[in-house]
C-alpha cells in the first residue's frame, strides 16, 4: 500500500498536537514531525523527537482536528539523535471527542526498530475521527517518537448562485413550431477549481398555446469551470414570449 495521494496531517499543520507529558521544554510535540532534525544544535532546537517525562503506558501524543478527517495510515519513527524509540503502541480515536474507541480493541501495533526507519501501519479500514492518539506500550531506552498521520484529502463544497438569465422579450421561441431553443451564455463570478454541477429553475414564464398545454424546458449545456450555456426550449405549437431562470452551481474542492 502507498501513502501517495494522502495528506500528511502534521507536516501540513492540519491539526493540533497535545501530549501527556514532555521531558522538558525542548523535548515536546513540536519536534514530533516525521524526519524532524535539529542540525546538531540540541540545546537550542531540542531533541529530534517528542520525549515523555514519565515512562509508563499512560503516555500519549494526540492529534486533534477542527473537522472530522478520514485517517488511512499512521507512521512512526525513532528519535534521530539518540537510540530511543517506541517498539509497540496502540491507537485510540474519537469522532466527537467525548466517546473514544480503541483500534483493534487496543492490540499492540509494531513500532520503530531504530532511530530513523519509518514504519507505516495502514488501518484495517479507514478511521473517521476528529482526534486520534498514539499510546506507546513498549520502548527502547525511552518513550521517544516522531510520527505522521495520513488522511484522505478534505473536500468542501463551493457554491455559486446566479439570477436573471433572460431570453429577452419576444424571443425566438415565440414563432414557428416544433423544437426550438434559445441559448444564453452564463459566466460564473469566480472560476471553479473542478467541474461543477448546475441546476436551473424558472422564475418567470410568459407563454401560451392553443391546446392550453405549457411545453417549456431549461437545461445547462457545455458546463466548464468558468461558465455554461443556459438552454431554454419549447416544442410543438407552444409560443413563448420570454423566459427567465436562476441557477445554483456547486463543486467539491
Description:
The protein is mainly beta. Helices cover 2% and strands 51% of the residues. The protein contains 1 helix and 15 strands. The protein has one helix at residues 42-45, and strands spanning 7-8, 16-19, 50-51, 61-77, 85-94, 100-102, 109-110, 119-140, 144-151, 157-166, 180-187, 197-208, 216-221, 227-234, 239-252. Strands 1, 2, 3, 4, 5, 6, 7, 8 and 9 form a 9-stranded antiparallel sheet that branches. A hairpin with a 5-residue loop joins β13 and β14. The longest helix is centred in the first third of the chain and has 4 residues, at 42-45. It is rod-shaped, with a radius of gyration of 29 Å. The chain starts with 6 loop residues before the first strand and ends with a strand. The mean pLDDT is 95.
Amino acid at each position: 500500500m502507498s501513502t501517495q495521494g494522502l495528506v500528511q496531517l502534521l507536516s501540513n499543520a492540519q491539526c493540533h498536537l497535545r501530549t501527556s507529558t514532555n521531558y522538558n521544554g525542548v523535548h515536546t510535540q513540536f519536534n514530533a514531525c516525521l524526519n524532524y532534525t535539529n542540525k546538531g544544535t540540541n540545546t537550542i532546537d531540542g531533541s529530534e523527537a517528542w520525549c515523555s517525562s514519565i515512562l509508563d503506558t499512560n503516555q500519549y501524543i494526540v492529534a486533534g482536528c477542527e473537522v472530522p478527517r478520514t485517517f488511512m495510515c499512521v507512521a512512526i519513527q525513532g528519535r534521530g539523535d539518540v537510540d530511543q524509540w517506541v517498539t509497540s503502541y496502540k491507537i485510540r480515536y474519537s469522532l466527537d471527542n467525548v466517546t473514544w474507541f480503541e483500534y483493534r480493541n487496543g492490540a499492540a501495533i509494531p513500532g520503530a526498530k531504530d532511530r530513523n526507519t519509518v514504519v507505516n501501519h495502514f488501518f484495517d479500514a479507514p478511521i473517521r475521527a476528529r482526534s486520534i492518539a498514539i499510546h506507546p506500550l513498549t520502548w527502547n531506552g525511552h518513550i521517544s517518537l516522531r510520527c505522521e498521520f495520513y488522511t484522505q484529502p478534505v473536500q468542501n463544497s463551493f457554491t455559486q448562485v446566479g439570477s436573471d438569465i433572460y431570453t429577452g422579450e419576444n424571443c425566438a421561441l415565440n414563432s414557428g413550431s416544433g423544437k426550438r431553443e434559445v441559448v444564453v451564455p452564463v459566466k460564473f463570478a469566480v472560476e471553479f477549481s473542478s467541474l461543477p454541477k448546475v441546476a436551473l429553475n424558472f422564475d418567470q414564464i410568459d407563454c401560451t398555446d392553443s391546446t392550453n398545454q405549457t411545453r417549456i424546458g431549461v437545461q445547462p449545456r457545455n458546463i466548464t469551470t468558468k461558465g455554461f450555456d443556459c438552454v431554454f426550449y419549447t416544442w410543438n405549437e407552444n409560443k413563448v414570449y420570454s423566459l427567465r431562470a436562476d441557477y445554483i452551481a456547486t463543486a467539491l474542492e
